[in-house]
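Protocol step 4 of 6: structure prediction from sequence.
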Amino acid sequence: MLIIRKAIEISSPKYSKNNCSAYSMIELLVVISIISISISLVLAAVQNVRAAAARTRCGNNLRQIGLALQQYELSYGWLPMGVAYQNGKAPQLSITWMTRLLPYVDQNSLWLQALAAFQQNSFFETPPHFPILSKNMPLFVCPSDFQAQSPYNSGIFSVALTSYLGSEGTNLISKDGVLFVDSSIKLIEITDGISNTLAVGERPPSADKTLGWWYAGWGQVLGNTPTGSCDSVLGVRELQVTPHYSNCSPGPYSFRFGSLNNDCDAFHFWSLHPGGGNFVFCDGSVHFLTYATDSILPALATRSGAEILDSIE
């Protein structure tokens, strides 16, 4: 019996408290790692779903804008001016194409308010215009563009911002697009085809918030003419001609990723969606164009360049 007991004692494993504790700690670390990875995957999935939803809502905004542009053209026979100047004699000086679309996006009362304000004072940075200048318009703001979702306080007045700029074509000099200073382009004049020509695209307001005003604005001044460039309209190969932004390259700029903190990114189309941005074409269709399509944007931006494209995406 003694021999058997000794054998049992020798063959039986002995567990100390230290061994047991070490084994439990390893298990705990493994479980924590699995939970951490699972949470990361879930959060990433939620973030992707939210980003996709915001991109879809943004596209819906542009779809409504495209429809309003077509209704405007049907009413007047031409698309709205990108921005109004007319040698300083425009009845509503410096208003943008977005302001002219107000009656076509269920905002006729706001349009009438704007007309009344211009009757009181032709300069938009005056008290009669302040209520409209600060009026936030969700239709003109991308859901991903959080900084544009509330008015910017300039210290004197508040300014409502926009994430969408009209396509002036190549740049502020060429005026070969559909929305530029004093433009009055008819759809029939878009010989490249309305389904192949950009109307409006995404670009968040400039970092200093001086560019990206939906109601009215000067934009870049060329000679003595405010062009609205980079404020309410933009070219796909835009030039920088403003002393205020002398730290930025003169251009031309291309379609690429930008930053909310970089003023120089005001000179090109970009968005807060990963990989590209939404554009509405002159036929009202909306396309998400990736930054890889930059090479074909000059062809898409011109209304009568006679370029031949195999695909727009």
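Step 5 (inspection) to follow. Residues 45-301 form one domain.
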